[in-house]
Amino acid sequence: MKNITIIGSGSFGCALAHVFSKNNNVKIWSYTKEEKESINNNHECLYVKDIKLSNNVVCYDSIEESLIDSDIVVLVVPSNSIRNMCIEIKKYYKNQQIVLASKGLENEKLLSEVVQEELNVDPSVIIGPTFAKDVGTDKKSYIELSGNKDLIDILIDDNFIINYNEDKIGLEVAGALKNVITILYSFVETLDYGMNYNSYCFIEGLNEIKKIGISLGAKENTFYSLGTLGDLFGTIKSKQSRNNQAGELLAKGKTLDEIKKEVGTTIEGLDTLKSVINIIEDKKLDCPLITKLYNIIYNNESKESIIQ
């Protein structure tokens, strides 16, 4: 039994707390009073009430308190918060193992690179087609881990199955970019260009993920695994996905501000799209679908340009 600190009390942070607390001691750090009170007083996730938490799971709003006696720190905050969270953690860091469960990019950097820069440690990553409500209500879920294999025996559960994948770069790239391709797929599906074009966007979207990943050092065969192709498929098919919702609203003519207000929480694909376009340009990659989506969202090109 290990002492695990989860940094982030959103729906997926709570889902992981639900799973990990079955065999470990778990503490959660929260940014908001409302999330903290929901966990400590009601023993449930504020955003997904079906996710119930053990009475032994305690939430803190102090990074220092949450890290006391911790063996493992799991980062489950939005990608644009990873660096600032690591800067705060560094003040109290005592060589705990770091597990990265966030997906995204920081400008042109993988999130694991950000963690390395701030904490001087190479984190493990867990990525897969997992959704908070499913994980937090004990639906059978499969996920991939890259990094320290010993973590699998600590974090695994009968309904939370962890497979090992040696290609951390590939997992991280796919985990970030599947959110972008999900926005794209939902966008064209809502515009009703037909199943053939939907299928084309799915396959070509995967090819563009693979092309970007290989340019950053990933292995080609990684992009057909559970944590890559499986994650892309699961996110595209799930109506729980915020990126799926964003693509649909974009196709219906909503502005970015309206989309963010309606979806209500972080939409990682929108931030990742701004980051990955820099990689595409710097490495001179041919990624027409991602480029078109970027121009539609951020350069006010017409929706119809996606099919031209």
Strand order of the largest sheet: 3-2-1-4-5-8-9-10
What's the tally of helices?
14
The share of residues in helices is 40-55%
Major β-sheet profile: 8 strands, mixed
- CATH fold-level label of the largest domain: Rossmann fold
What is the rounded Rg? 19 Å
Overall pLDDT? 95
Principal-axes geometry comes out as globular
Strand-pairing-aware structural class: alpha/beta
Number of strands: 10
| Architecture per CATH nomenclature, i.e. the level-2 architecture of the largest domain | 3-Layer(aba) Sandwich
Number of domains: 2
Strand content: 5-15%
Low-confidence stretches: none
Q: List SSEs in N-to-C order.
A: EHEHEHEHEEEHEHEHEHHHHHHH
What's the CATH first level of the largest domain?
Alpha Beta
The rounded distance between the terminal residues' Cα atoms is 56 Å
Q: Name the CATH superfamily classification of the largest domain.
A: NAD(P)-binding Rossmann-like Domain
Describe this structure in words.
The protein has helices at residues 11-20, 33-42, 63-67, 82-90, 111-119, 132-136, 151-155, 168-191, 195-215, 226-237, 242-251, 256-263, 268-282, 288-298; strands at residues 3-7, 25-29, 58-60, 72-75, 97-100, 105-106, 109-110, 124-127, 141-146, 160-164. The protein has 308 residues and is α/β, with parallel strands linked by helices. The strands form 2 sheets. Strands 3-2-1-4-5-8-9-10 form an 8-stranded mixed sheet, sandwiched between helices. The protein has a two-stranded antiparallel ribbon with strand order 6-7. Helix 8 runs antiparallel to helix 9 (195-215). It is built from 14 helices and 10 strands. It folds into 2 domains: 3-164, NAD(P)-binding Rossmann-like Domain (Rossmann fold), CATH 3.40.50.720; 168-307, N-(1-d-carboxylethyl)-l-norvaline Dehydrogenase, domain 2, CATH 1.10.1040.
